[in-house]
């Protein structure tokens, strides 16, 4: 839901360019469709379906349900929904 902060986790590359031996967690804010479209338009991002999850290892999107407990939230079934999630 717009305004929520969800999380992705993984062992992928860090900002330093190396892979982490420790699983990392990153919070991402969910935006409404209108704001997402406007934001992507200013970046001139190529958001074709086949590019949205390229390189994604299938890590689930998670939402904090209780203090310090992450519950897996159903991943986006349609890649177009990914436009609602902006990663920094």
Distance between the termini: 18 Å
Q: How large is the share of residues in beta strands?
A: 15-25%
**Helix fraction by DSSP (H/I, runs of at least 4):** 10-25%
Numbering strands along the chain, what is their spatial order in the largest sheet?
2-1-3-4
SS element count, helices: 2
- Rounded radius of gyration (Å): 14 Å
Could you tell me the mean pLDDT? 68
Query: How many structurally independent domains?
Result: 1
Number of strands: 4
Task: Give a verbal description of the structure.
It is a single chain. This protein has 88 residues and is of the alpha+beta class. It has one domain. It contains two helices and four strands, in the order ββααββ. It has a four-stranded antiparallel β-sheet with strand order 2-1-3-4, with no helix packed on it. β3 (62-66) and β4 form a beta hairpin. The longest helix is centred in the middle third of the chain and has 11 residues, at 33-43. It is flat. The two termini are 18 Å apart. The relative contact order is 0.26. The model is unreliable at 70-80 (pLDDT under 50).
